[in-house]
Description:
- This is Succinate dehydrogenase cytochrome b556 subunit.
- Membrane-anchoring subunit of succinate dehydrogenase (SDH).
- It is found in: Membrane.
- The chain crosses the membrane at residues 24-44, 64-83, 103-123.
- Pfam families: Sdh_cyt.
- By secondary structure, the protein is an all-alpha fold.
- It has one domain (18-123): Fumarate reductase/succinate dehydrogenase, transmembrane subunit (3 helical TM bundles of succinate and fumarate reductases).
- It contains four helices and no strands.
- The chain has helices spanning 18-49, 51-61, 64-91, 98-123.
- The longest helix is centred in the first third of the chain and has 32 residues, at 18-49.
- The relative contact order is 0.12.
Amino acid sequence: MNSQRPVNLDLRTIKLPITAYTSILHRISGVILFVGIAVLLYALDKSLGSEEGFEQVKACLTSALAKFVIWGLLSALLYHLVAGVRHLVMDAGVGETLEGGKLGSKIVIAVSAVLIVLLGVWVW
Length: 124
């Protein structure tokens, strides 16, 4: 066993490349979508159950907190979609180099940011 190996357990000092951040965000957005779909399916079931349930869901969705949650879920969906398109493009053989990967990550972040801001304007 080589005891001269550097050991860095402080995660705050590790500098990750931009491609790692986009990959991590893609996974996080997938988890958010998985949980969000369950909540939205519950609301759909409740709204289709009766007129009272529909009115309750309708009243709930007009609150500022509900709009924020919906904006968050739709933002996760848009980011996941844009990053997924990047993965499909890379599967086709485009942007597989280190420079291409970095450029693709920057494009994903820029396009997602613009779409999320436009989505926020639409939701509010």
